[in-house]
Every structure is written in structure tokens, then in C-alpha cells.
Write a structure and sequence with these properties.
- With 65 residues, the protein is mainly alpha-helical.
- It has a domain of 38 residues.
- It contains two helices and no strands.
Length: 65
């Protein structure tokens, strides 16, 4: 199980780094930007969890067959 937790944190870290690097291209200073960062961070966390869960399911199916 620790293998999947480490995959979750690796994908989370890589996604957050890319999110903040690419968000620097659109520096506007609007109030909407705060909402974009909030929803973007939530989406990154959920997608990182789903990626780790897919790795777990793939390994589970491989072990059954």
C-alpha cells in the first residue's frame, strides 16, 4: 500500500509544480484568479488520487490472473 501512497504524492507534487509554473504565464491579478487556483488545486488532488487508484486496480487485476 505504501507504493501507491508514494505514487499519489509523486503525481501530486509533479502536478502542483506544473500548475504553478504554467499559471505564471497568465499573471493578471484578478479576483477570479484566486478561484482558479482554488479549483485547480482541488482538481489536481482528485486527479492524483485517481491516478494512484488506477495503478492499484491494474496491479490488483494482474495479481488475480
Amino acid at each position: 500500500m505504501s507504493r501507491y501512497i508514494s505514487k499519489f504524492f509523486l503525481t501530486l507534487l509533479a502536478s502542483v509544480i506544473l500548475f504553478f509554473l504554467l499559471s505564471g504565464l497568465f499573471d493578471s491579478g484578478d479576483h477570479i484568479e484566486i478561484w482558479i487556483f482554488t479549483f485547480g488545486t482541488i482538481i489536481i488532488i482528485v486527479l492524483s488520487f485517481l491516478i494512484a487508484l488506477m495503478y492499484y486496480l491494474i496491479d490488483l487485476i494482474k495479481s488475480k490472473s
